[in-house]
């Protein structure tokens, strides 16, 4: 087992002579495995659009459940996946979690290749895809230990963005791959990932490392759970990552359902996830320089304005405004993802005199906030489902609910981290980079 006992990234001599090289190596292979996790996690978002073309006539409600279930399972797995890192080590757990992605790919290949496959099997297949959603928390918690505080924002942003790009890659590649030859071949949507999963699994085993200090104990989780900042940041992460992943799952279907004449544009749905993923490290970078809370507040204001644009586009039946507003939502959610995650280690560094304890608590919060944020994606798709099945059969009720929620996020960010006397009440936060 490649365990490293001595790790002091805050010391410049150690970082330059040894730490930087090892950290970058682990970051690279972590990104590869996490990218494939996201690719498999959102696979149903594209497959569901083409199920009718190959003989599986599911209702709008049934289709949205196929989107909700992997999101729900992925969210639920994020906490145990975070515990798996201290139990098995980052190297072994990355190997295991990457290898598990072969299961949903095999299930999807069988489901779409077998005529008359029952709906319940598609639901189980969607649930298995949730295995890819858990990878994020274990990867982020693991990488957070490798980098010094001053470089953590960009590193975590790159790690998360590399994973998030899996959404865009799936939504770009799968529509092309399944149309190779004559007709629609949905089995290709699963088969294409299998060789890459094998490669990522082997790379994690042979090239990654595990840090002895990356061991959040039970006490760290108890302290994190009792800290109000854990729940504040989890709430804000619902607004950023919950928006990103929820919109990523729903965007292709929303185009097809709401603008039938423009359903060919489903092939360009990947642009939202692509631009949002690329924007994530920008959020971490900005947070490192001007403060995570300021960046986060700005993104929530922007998310509210983008939501207004989508509402207007639905009322005016203007597809260009609809598509452009959604792209803006993805960008802002991506920036917010980076800034909120940068705030977590900064805040918890002020909560303890023990640097190692603070890092362990922050790692615990990464798992907790990651799980709750991913659950926000479930809520996004549930709201879309009920809105489209309701009396109006329109997106407007769902979008109005999102607008109200973003307003609450603006108020929460300001109240806890930006109002004039907040630093007087908790002066340590003034030095937390928030």
UniProtKB/TrEMBL annotation:
Major place of residence: membrane
Membrane topology reported for the UniProt record: Multi-pass membrane protein
Keywords carried by this UniProt record: Membrane, Transmembrane, Transmembrane helix
Domain of life: Bacteria
Record localization: Membrane
Segments crossing the lipid bilayer: 27-58, 64-85, 92-113, 119-136, 156-180, 186-208, 229-252, 264-283, 295-314, 320-341, 362-384, 396-418
Alphabetized CDD domains for the sequence: MFS_NRT2_like (cd17341)
Similarity comment: Belongs to the major facilitator superfamily. Nitrate/nitrite porter (TC 2.A.1.8) family.
Protein name: Nitrate/nitrite transporter
Annotated source species: Lentzea sokolovensis
